[in-house]
Amino acid sequence: MSKPKGFEKPVGVKDYLPHAVSKLRGIERSVLDCMLRWGYEQIMTPTLEYYDTVGVASATSDQKLFKLLNQRGTTIVLRSDMTAPIARVVGSLLKEHSFPLRLSYHASVFRAFEEDAGREAEFFQTGVELVGDASPEADAEVIALAIASLQAAGVRSFKIAVGHVGFLNGLFEETLPGREAEQEELKACLLQRDHVGYRRILGSLSLDEGWRAELEGILRLRGGQEVCEQALQLSLNEGARKAIRHLCEMWDVLAAYGVQEHVLIDLTMIGDFSYYTGMTFEGYAANLGFPVCSGGRYDNLLAQFGRPAPATGFALKTTRILEVVEEEPSAPEKTLIVYTAEARGQALAEAERLRADGRIAVTEIAADPAEADRLRLKARQNGGVTHKGTEYGEVVVFGLGEGGVRG
Amino acid sequence: MTENGGILKVAMPKGRIYKQASKLFREAGLPIPEDFDDSRRLIIPVPEAGMEFIMAKPVDVPTYVEYGVADIGVVGKDVMMEEAKDVYELLDLGIARCRMSVIGLPDWKPVIHPRVATKYPKVASQYFREHGQQVEVIKLNGSIELAPLIGLADRIVDMVETGQTLRENGLVEMKEMFQVTSRLIANRVSYRMKNAAIQSLCDRLSAVIPAQGGV
């Protein structure tokens, strides 16, 4: 690649100008406030972590981790999510803190470059982890909180799809006992969302016809609670039954929260099998082609940090939510205070008074006091004025005659 | 379950696949005119079916669908394999049937520095790696058959429908890699947010898809 030009930055990273930042901060504040009201307290962890600890434990595949070497040659990663760093903190600094732990975060995370536009190398996530509670109540709590958070962020129309890795594991174990390679092939197809490939592999397996029909039928298992009931009709082994019962109980809790209209059960929705251990979910917003949140249960992660415990959580993709929420109401009006050198003290005192009042005040020494007064009149006549590229609701002039002349 | 958005946006490939795909859609009871292909319009609403058709270059169809500017799309498996986009592959439409093959001159012998010319560099690289061969892959954009004739590459990887072009140029199909048909694909979010509309379209299309012979 040729030497970058002065305006260029690496692929996948973004600048945020004041307008976007104010919107982003608004979303971040509303969501973190919402999480706090559910008892989740915010935590911050460093951007850099060791590859051998957090890097290896994270759900991000190795080639998507940003790696660097420190002076001693130890491999360092830029955090690729917040879940593994939080697990590290729970296993160390918070070791004596009893369970359940409710933690929230807002942070930028990093994924190694992908060539396509729209695939970001650095993006914001806002999320929670609920550590030390294995119950369906806990899983339903994080889903209900994900819904409340999306609403707090201003996302109007959305759906959450929930699945459970235990169902497919159990179903494959029962229908294809001991045939692990074939199970893996089928799971890989579902993971890649390749239903055509899934049906073709099924068609080529030597399998009882009833089982074949059932395995093909799961592609249609999407909907509300009735999906769980349909799934229980299949003659399932204990693992799969347990998964479905867990989902049924979660559904009851979600109904009690009054949020089940947003929730869809999809038993083919699977996350990374090596990471998630129970329910998994994804959130989708209308008019946005990519999911806006994802989460699930990961009961094996904490053990890697010396404190085995069940855990569940989710992350909102805040950067994407930015694209779907409506414009924030415009920022509060600014006041421009223009002064002559003689009236500087008065002018700055007035600015201080406005700021203490929570207003925005910008000060400027007048190059031409008569011009400043014309600006003041114009602002008064039109209810605002643009001066040097910035809009002001009001102009106050000090140093012309007595005191401040308000616009 | 409420459906959002209403209109289903469908990315259709212009050219070879379009006629067969639109025929299939019409057989499934979706009133798509036959002559879209000749029209220069790029967006064609069909309000009576609750759909809007976006006419795209075939290799771009998965991109439109991945980004969600189209909810679903029709695209060849060859493009799916090459583009490797994150979309749902819902149905094998069984149309535009052909095959991806390794092709060379009849007197081909292994060479020390093998070179393979193709429009599908990812597919070709992956295939030869899986078969334990390290080859240099050269990306071409058309007239792939030229490459072995003029010595740019010793073999090519390309789609074969009837084999007519190969025969006319004195080339032979050395190995069939996989069968190619057109697929119905869906965006990850649309698959959930427009679940009912997409499922009903799948069901209607499944009912009229030609028998999956030869797979």
Which helices and strands occur, and which strands form pairs?
The complex is a heterodimer of chains A (407) and B (215).
Chain A: H1 18-37, E1 41-42, E2 48-50, H2 51-57, E3 67-69, E4 75-78, H3 83-91, E5 101-110, E6 122-131, H4 136-153, E7 158-164, H5 165-175, H6 180-191, H7 195-204, H8 209-217, E8 222-223, H9 225-233, H10 238-257, E9 263-266, E10 279-285, E11 293-297, E12 311-317, H11 318-324, E13 334-339, H12 344-356, E14 360-365, H13 369-382, E15 385-387, E16 390-392, E17 394-398, E18 404-406
Parallel strand pairs in A: 1-5, 7-9, 13-14, 13-17
Antiparallel strand pairs in A: 2-4, 3-4, 5-6, 6-12, 7-10, 8-9, 10-11, 11-12, 15-16, 17-18
Chain B: E1 8-13, H1 16-27, E2 43-46, E3 51-56, H2 61-67, E4 72-76, H3 77-83, E5 88-92, E6 98-104, E7 115-118, H4 121-130, E8 136-139, H5 146-150, E9 155-160, H6 164-168, E10 172-180, E11 182-186, H7 188-193, H8 195-208
Parallel strand pairs in B: 1-3, 1-4, 7-8, 7-9
Antiparallel strand pairs in B: 2-3, 4-11, 5-11, 6-9, 6-10
Strand portion of chain A: 15-25%
Strand coverage percent of chain B: 25-35%
Largest sheet of chain A: 9 strands, mixed
In spatial order, strands of the major sheet of chain B run 2-3-1-4-11-5
How many distinct beta strands of chain B? 11
Q: Which term fits the overall shape of chain A?
A: elongated
The class by helix and strand makeup of chain A works out as alpha+beta
| CATH homologous superfamily (4th level) name of the largest domain in chain B | Periplasmic binding protein-like II
**CATH topology tier name of the largest domain in chain B:** D-Maltodextrin-Binding Protein, domain 2
CATH topology of the largest domain in chain A: BirA Bifunctional Protein, domain 2
SS element count, helices of chain A: 13
Number of self-contained structural domains of chain B: 2
Oligomeric state of this protein = heterodimer
Biggest interface in this structure?
A-B, 27 and 25 residues
- The chain-level mean pLDDT of chain A equals 89
Q: What's the gyration radius of chain A in Å?
A: 28 Å
Task: State the order of secondary-structure elements of chain B, H for helix, E for strand.
Answer: EHEEHEHEEEHEHEHEEHH
- Computed structural class of chain B: alpha/beta
List low-confidence stretches of chain B. none
Strand line-up in the sheet with most strands of chain A: 1-5-6-12-11-10-7-9-8
The level of helicity of chain B is: 25-40%
